[in-house]
Amino acid sequence: MGYQAHYIHPDLKLSRFDDKFYKADVLFEHHLLVWFISGETKIVQGENTFWFGAGDTLLFPRNQLVTVINYPKDGLPHQSAVMHLTPKRLTDFYAKNRVDVKPMPTPAFRTFDRHPLLKSCLASLIPYFDLNESLPDVIAAIKIDEAINILRTIDTDIDHLLANFDEPGKISLTDFMEQNYMFNMTMDKFGYLTGRSLTTFKRDFKKTFQTTPQKWITNKRLELAHYQIREKKRRPSDVYLEVGFENLSHFGHAFKKRFGYAPTELAG
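Structure for Helix-turn-helix domain-containing protein, as requested:
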C-alpha cells in the first residue's frame, strides 16, 4: 500500500507512506506545521540536504520549493501529523492579535528542536485521529490557535512569516532558476513564483537564457548530476532524484546523450 491521508478536518490530517520511499517536489499554497511520528524524511532545498526523524517538528513556509523524500524506518511506516495554517485561519488570528510585519529574506523551513510545548500539542491531537467522524470546526480552531500561540512563544520572529500575506513579486529570473531548476514544477508555477504570467515567463526566459525552459532545466540537472557523481563520488541511483529526474532509466539515457557515456561509467 502506498500513500494514505486521514483527514479529521480539512486543516488536520495524518499522513502515512508504506512504500520503500516517496519523493515529491512540493510547493505549498499555505504554511504547514508537520510533526514526524515515525520513519525518516530527507529534505533538499537548493544545495542543502537535511534529515529528520520521529519527534522532529517542521514548519514549511508557503510558496517555497523543496524536495521531500519520505522513508519507512525500523519496520515502521513513515507517519506524520500535518496542520494546515491557511490564510483564512491566519487572517482571523492576526485580526485579533495585531502585529507590525517586517520584510524578511526568502523564508526557509523552520525546525523547533523537539520543543516540549509542540510535543504536548501533538500529543493532544493524536487521539482525535481515532475518531470515526469529523472534528468539529470549533475544536479544530482551538487546536490551531494553540499551535500558532506556541510557535509565537518559541520563535519571536514567526509573526513576520505567518502574518505576511503578500503574493510573490517580480524577481530576478536568473537568480531564481539557478537556485530552483532541480524542482519538478509546471511552467505556470515557475512563472507565478517569479512574479510573471506564463507568457511573460517564457518570453523573459528566452531573452535571458537563449533557449527554452525545458532544455535549460534538463541541461542544468545533468551538469549537477555529473558533478555529484564525479566530484562527490556519489552513486547515480542516489543522485537522480535529487537533481530532478523521476526515473533512473530516463536519467541514464539523458546523461549518456548529453555526455557520451553512462553515469555508471563515470561512477566506476
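Strands lie at 3-9, 12-17, 22-26, 31-38, 40-45, 48-53, 57-60, 66-71, 78-85, 110-111.
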